[in-house]
Amino acid sequence: xxxxxxxxxxxxxxxxxxxxxxxxxxxxxxxxxxxxxxxxxxxxxxxxxxxxxxxxxxxxxxxxxxxxxxxxxxxxxxxxxxxxxxxxxxxxxxxxxxxxxxxxxxxxxxxxxxxxxxx
Length: 119
Description:
This protein has 119 residues and is an alpha+beta fold. The protein has helices at 35-46, 79-86; strands at 2-7, 16-22, 25-30, 49-50, 53-59, 65-70, 74-75, 90-92, 100-102, 112-114. Helices cover 17% and strands 38% of the residues. A hairpin with a 5-residue loop joins strand 5 and strand 6 (65-70). 22% of the residues are buried.
């Protein structure tokens, strides 16, 4: 039996979580204090994903840059591809929260959106 030790990032508590596995199947999760910990641990050992955050340049705005993030989480192995998809992107002001900056980042099916306004 294999055991994977994780620190949960599902909530601010940061519980130490142990996932017991055998042959790629999850036998159990221990150490979590909430359901989010169980969900996080199961997902992390089978299909880890992350939200990607960055900034892009703004042309003609009150700020030179706008913060952006993936609309939902993307597979962990696609993080750097998503960052590369932002290289050289310049958006014209005004920019509004939720504006789509890249529609299908790194062919993940996930949009990268603005997370702040720039006038």
